Amino acid sequence: MKIKLVIFDLDGTLLNSIQDIATCTNYALQQLNQPTHPVEIYKNFVGNGIYKLFELSLPKAKRSKENINLMHELFTKSYNKHMTDESKPYEGIPELLKELHQKGIKIAVASNKYQAATKHLISHFFPNLPFVAVLGQRQNIETKPNPAIIQEILNISGVTPKQTLYVGDSGVDMQTAINSKTIACGVSWGFRPRQELECYNPPYIVDNSIELRELIYTAY
Asked: Are residues 119 and 212 in the same domain?
């Protein structure tokens, strides 16, 4: 079956964004007089949406709804200004996206990052690329691994799950592919260890953008 659509996760898949996420979360924690964390720790906190990030970053005794809402306010105010300070695409990703478009393969983004940031990052780092959809976390829409966001993209694109490759760096992404019945491809360059991907037995795991390109073109 030819691959007609590739859906990408954002953080840890298209972009190495962990430094800016860590900096802005630590800023919010400091404002609440709570302990901060090293950047590497945040790789374990992201992937399940912004509120889960705040919950995990706060001490267990401080994970009240009030504190999480305060974290949200402080974080988004900072992140909206600084989300592109240190973030950058992984090697070969901009070129790959351009090639896929030129080859006639549709591309889309499905992220658990809030919608405004998702759209801004894509337009900033990948300008002039016609994604069929760029979807992030939105009110009243279930986050991944719920397949709702993937189904929305499939409906927009008119492509079937069997013709769709879903690419991500985490167990959440692999479960999303399973739930949406799309073809899973894990990437080992992101925030989670390869072993986490392997636990879900995806048909493909790639180690760099060259391998991903070869996989897509072979399937195409």
From this structure: yes
CA distance 160 to 4: 9
- Cβ atoms of 148 and 142 closer than 8 Å: yes
Q: Does one domain contain both 58 and 113?
A: no
Q: Are residues 143 and 194 in the same domain?
A: yes
pLDDT digits (tens, 9 = 90+) for 37-75: 999 999 999 999 899 999 999 999 999 999 999 999 999
The predicted model scores a pTM of: 0.96
Residues facing residue 106 across a β-bridge: 5
Measure CA 127 to chain center. 18
Q: How far is CA 178 from CA 20, 79, 161, in A?
A: 30, 31, 10
Nearest Cα to Cα of residue 59 among 19, 97, 32: 32
* CATH number of the domain where residue 52 is located: 1.10.150.240
Q: Give the C-alpha separation, 6 to 177, whole Å.
A: 12
Walk across the sheet containing 183-187 and list its strands: 133-137, 106-114, 5-8, 164-168, 183-187, 204-206
CB 165 within 8 A of CB 185: yes
| Same domain, yes or no: 192 and 214 | yes
Q: Containing domain of residue 55, as a range?
A: 18-82
User: d(Cα 134, Cα 9) in Å, to the nearest integer?
Assistant: 10
Q: Are 67 and 92 members of one domain?
A: no
